[in-house]
Amino acid sequence: MAAKKGDRSKATPAVPRPSSSVILISPKNEVLLLHRVKTSTSFASAHVFPGGNLSVQDGECPAVDDPKRHEDAPWYRNAAVRELFEESGILLARDQNTGAMLAVPEAEREKGRRAIHQHEMTFVEWLKKQNAAAVPDIEPLIPFTRWITPTNVPKRYSTQMYLYFLPLPVETDPSVLKEIPEREEIQVPTSDGGIEVTETMFLPAAEWLRRAKSGEIIMFPPQFLLLHLVSQFLDKEPLGTASLEELRSRRAELVEFAHSGTPPWTEKCISPKMLKMSSDGRAVLALDHPGPELEGTDRAGEPDRVVYVQFKQGAARKLDVRWKKDVFAEQEKSSL
Question: How many other C-beta atoms lie within 10 A of the C-beta of residue 221?
Answer without folding.
Answer: 21
